[in-house]
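User: Hello! I'm new to structural biology and keep hearing that structure can be predicted from sequence alone. Could you demonstrate with DinB family protein? Please show me the input and the output so I can see what each looks like.

Assistant: Of course. The first part below is the input, the amino acid sequence of DinB family protein. The second part is the output, the predicted structure written as tokens.
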Amino acid sequence: MAGMPSQSQQDPTMWVDSNDDPRQDQQHEQDERGTYQDYLGHYRLTLQMKCDGLTPEQLATRSVPPSTMSLLGMVRHMAEVERVWFRRVLSQQDADRFWGPRRGDDDWNGAVGEQAAVDEAFAAWRGEVAYAEEWLEAHPDMDAVIDDPERGPIAVRDVLVHMVEEYARHCGHADLLRECIDGRTGQ
């Protein structure tokens, strides 16, 4: 309506005006792979939006001691998750971890409030997301099964559903982390 304030003007906790939200709702029929791509894209963009506009110190803020969880740690963690599932499992590459040994929590613990750490984390995450998107474009068969030495046979669709689950869970954490920092909850 003309003269009405936008959604973001009405509620300062929202990220963007609902008409300007860069995440697109799935409003058309598509195949299974397209559905996974849309959901992954939506959640990846949501994580990015939850981090936008914060200083390195704010990104490294831990919400509830003794938890080591922070938004920056989450970006580092998701870079590792993308790397494990798309490079190590689906591509069968011997890709080293970015931050410390498996289950060592170095992705969370090493998230310090310094610009270099922020730049490194986002570069790693964006690089792994780009690799995953390229891999998915080149491998349309959701029924394909990869024989992972550690996990056994696993279907591509199962990896993609797991990735959606992983992002959905952590975007919920990101909501709470961001709200602790500046009160914004977003949409």
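User: So the tokens describe the shape?

Assistant: Right, they're a compact way of writing down the 3D structure. Reading them back into a model, for example: The radius of gyration is 18 Å.
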